[in-house]
Amino acid sequence: MSRHFIGLLSEVNTPMILRSRVLPVLVIALAPMCGCKTNADLQQGLPEPVILNADEYRQEITDVDRLVFAAQPFDDDRRASLDTTLKALAQRVKAASNARFLEVESNEIKTLAEGFRHMPEAGLHTQLPQQWMRIRNNLFDDRSWFARGAADLDQPSQPQ
User: Fold this and answer.
1) pLDDT tens digits for 5-43?
2) pLDDT interval class at 126 (50, 70, 90)
3) Is the pTM higher than 0.90?
């Protein structure tokens, strides 16, 4: 039986089989690695973050916090107020500096304002607060008076 198996191997050119199956796989697997730098800077091209003083934007931030975190339903008036308030904040953030980071974050605020206009009620109570806190944390230094939920709106804020 082993003679028969050895005879089959001699009839079939095994190095050719290996080359025809393994070589293309190796080429496909290793080709992308040839162009990669081992010291690539992954942050290259990203805008340098600019942190704004939250105290200078306190009125706008608390207005948005109240609209975002209030437990009441999102009626048309509340949606319109939030849209207006967010767009005004976006304009003020963009005007603060020529920094590309602020332009990007200003666009994020505008996108948030436009994105929630027709969002179902359930999404507004979960997604909107998360997105607002993400943008707020990207732009402003953290303050104890920031609202993080509806319960924070009931507590009077203490000036710092």
Assistant:
1) 555 545 555 555 555 665 555 556 555 555 555 555 555
2) confident
3) no
Q: How far is residue 67 from each of residues 38, 110, 115, 129, 155, measured CA to CA in Å?
A: 47, 16, 15, 10, 15
What residue segments make up the domains of the chain, in order of their start? 2-34, 54-154
Q: How many residues does the chain have?
A: 160
What is the Cα 111 distance to its own chain's centre?
12
Q: Closest by alpha carbon to 67, among 145, 125, 109, 135?
A: 125
Say if residue 3's pLDDT is above 70.
no
As a three-state string, the secondary structure of the chain is: CHHHHHHHHHHCCHHHHHHHHHHHHHHHHHHHHHCCCCCCCCCCCCCCCCCECHHHHHHHHHHHHHHHHCCCCCCHHHHHHHHHHHHHHHHHHHHCCCCHHHHHHHHHHHHHHHHCCCCCHHHHHHHHHHHHHHHHHHHECCCCCCCCCHHHHHCCCCCC
Cα–Cα dist 22/13, whole Å: 14
